User: What shape does this take?
Amino acid sequence: MSTAKKHGGEARERIARKLRLLRTERKLSQEKMAELANFHRTYVSQLERCVTNISIDGLERLASALGVDISALLEPIPAKNKGKK
Assistant: This one.
């Protein structure tokens, strides 16, 4: 069982997977993603690994950088994309 699930972090895991999927679909490096959202690259890495939490304001910055609505970061990943990294 992952650390996030032990602590009730299912939403955090969903955000992490969705962030990585949307970022890679747009061919953005973690560094470029961080620059667009005004975060440090290590923070983006921590988010994608479920090491840290993010605020609603932070979610808005990520969504804006990715060109999606904030709700897109919370939507489940379709089964066909779940295994992609």
Residues 12-73 form a domain with the 434 Repressor (Amino-terminal Domain) fold (CATH 1.10.260.40). The CA atoms of residues 59 and 70 lie 6 Å apart. The chain has one domain: 12-73.
